User: Fold this.
Amino acid sequence: MMEMTLADFLSLPDAVKVRYIRDFAILYSQQFSREDLDAYCRLADACRFLHRQPGGANVMSQLLRHRMALNFFVQPSSRTFMSFNTAQAYLGMNRMSVRDVNISSISKGESLVDSVRTFISYVDLVVMRHSDENAGAAAFWTAMQAHRRLRIEEQDRPVPIISGGSGSQQHPTQALLDIYTLDKALEPIGGIDGKSFMLVGDLARGRTVRSLSYLMKNYRGVQLFFAAPERYQMRADLLEFLDRNEISWQMIGSISEAIDVVDAVYMTRIQDEYDHLATGKHVPATKEFVFTMNHLRRMKQTACLLHPLPKRDEIDPEVDYVEDPRVMYWRQERNGMWMRVAIIAKLFKVDGAILDAYESDEM
Ligand code: ASP
Assistant:
């Protein structure tokens, strides 16, 4: 039970909220240390490898057979929803989903907090995507208040909440899978430490770039280039965070300005669903921020191109089908599923069982 009202909890700075959240929920990128990130990457690799071994998939599918997951997605989603579903299935979990509030009691005026309290009477895990950036924190507070506890490794724990995207602020599991992808791609040249990254597109409202930028505090000597039209540039709160953590950053006015020097490019689409006068028509990307074949030719041979997807016109479609290992976004998508297996396994503390099976198989 938390000795704090919901309003008091929500009014805390995120850096303080994470002290309460500990490893009970996954809501903010600021929760993770370097040690955590390295462990997640190793575990995602172990899950991927084990699943391919004869009998490995079977071992994994026994681990959480007795657990029920709810995927509560009230904003559109393809990859996050499907990869969480698949990850849960690989771990043997039973699954339910709510994707349309019109068919839940929320449409009868039930508050989010009451809805979550109901969900956690039935399920052992809630993955949620919501337009309200505080929805995940409110759900966590509710899980702390509720009487139901899960017995996990001799400890009573609240029903875990995982953010699958919180408004325009955070998408922590996407950031973890981005780190996993970068970690693998940059491994031959010494990993993420000391590298330069270009983040392109709608940095003001892109929750993926925000969450990824927070994670960069865990790496030494990283440099960030923010390539965006002025109105989509990175917000002051995040720039202050980077300054406090001594991460060097620079705003630039086109992809061309830094394409020859960076070790990875992370493209994003314009998040026009957050426009006040959203017309439903998509806002096109400006020329300077469209990734073309010419950029690919100029990019370092060891660099890589990422995108959280969905993409629109910010990458020339020709780039999609070139045989070039630097074009990494389709593999990034697949990595996401393995990272989500790892995230759930760690929350339910079956990561040790996976690592043991992996290590005994590796020998
Ligand atoms: N799928 C990502 C997200 O949910 C990226 C995007 O929608 O542009 O934030």
Notes: The pocket of aspartic acid is lined by residues 165, 171, 207-208, 268-269, 308, 310 (CB under 6 Å). The CA atoms of residues 154 and 349 lie 11 Å apart. The first helix runs from residue 6 to 11.
